C-alpha cells in the first residue's frame, strides 16, 4: 500500500508542538468532563438527552466497563423519576452499552476477549464489504459533506472538545459508508460500532490515538479521490485495530500470566 500524506493542523508547524498542545488541552478537557459527571446537571432533561450523555461518557471512558449505573445516582444527577431512569437504562441495554445482572443492577457492558474478537470480525466484514461497494473515484461534489465533517472534526481534536470529537467521528463514518448507497448496510455497521463503545473507551481519549485517527480520516478521503479500492479496504481494516487490540491487551493484563499462557 502506497504511503499517503498526513494532514497537519493549520498553525502548528512542528509535530512535537501538536502533541504538546493536544496534551495540555485534553488534560483540561478531561478534568472538566470528570467534574461535570459528578455534579447534578441543571435544567430539564429528556430521556433522549440523558441517553446521549451516558453514551458519550461510556465511549470516552468516564464510565468504565463493569461500572454500576445506580438508579438513585442518575435520578439525582438528571432530576428524573425512577421509571424514566429505568427506561433510559433499558434503552442503553438495547443499544448494547449496558447489561443488567440480577441482584446487582445495571452495569456498563464488559466484553471477554473472545467476544471482542467476534464483534470486530463482524465489524471488519461489514465495513470492508461496504467500502468495496463505493464507486471510485468519488467526485468532489459527493465528498463535500464528508469534508465538512472532517474539518469540524479537526477543529474539535485541536480544541480538546471530547464530546464533539466523538459525535463528529460517528457522523464521519456514517457519511463515508453512505457513499455505498446501501442504507441497510450502513445501519448494520452503525449498530455494531455502537456496541463497541465500551471497547473503544480504551483509546478514544488518548491524544496520540486521536491524532492517528484524524490522519487516517484524511487518508481515507484521499483514497476515495484516488480510486484504489484495495488501499481503501486496507485503510478501513487498519482503522479498526487500535481499540480492539488495546482492550484485549488490557483484559489479558488484568487476567494475569495464566491468560497469556492460555492464549
TrEMBL record:
One family name in Pfam for this protein: GntR
Superkingdom in the source lineage: Bacteria
InterPro entries per record: GntR_C (IPR011711), TF_FadR/GntR_C (IPR008920), Tscrpt_reg_HTH_GntR (IPR000524), WH-like_DNA-bd_sf (IPR036388), WH_DNA-bd_sf (IPR036390)
SUPFAM superfamilies, per the entry: GntR ligand-binding domain-like, Winged helix' DNA-binding domain
Swiss-Prot/TrEMBL keywords: DNA-binding, Transcription, Transcription regulation
Record keyword Transcription regulation present: yes
PROSITE patterns, per database record: HTH_GNTR
HTH gntR-type domain residues: 44-111
Name this protein carries in UniProt: GntR family transcriptional regulator
Species name: Stutzerimonas azotifigens
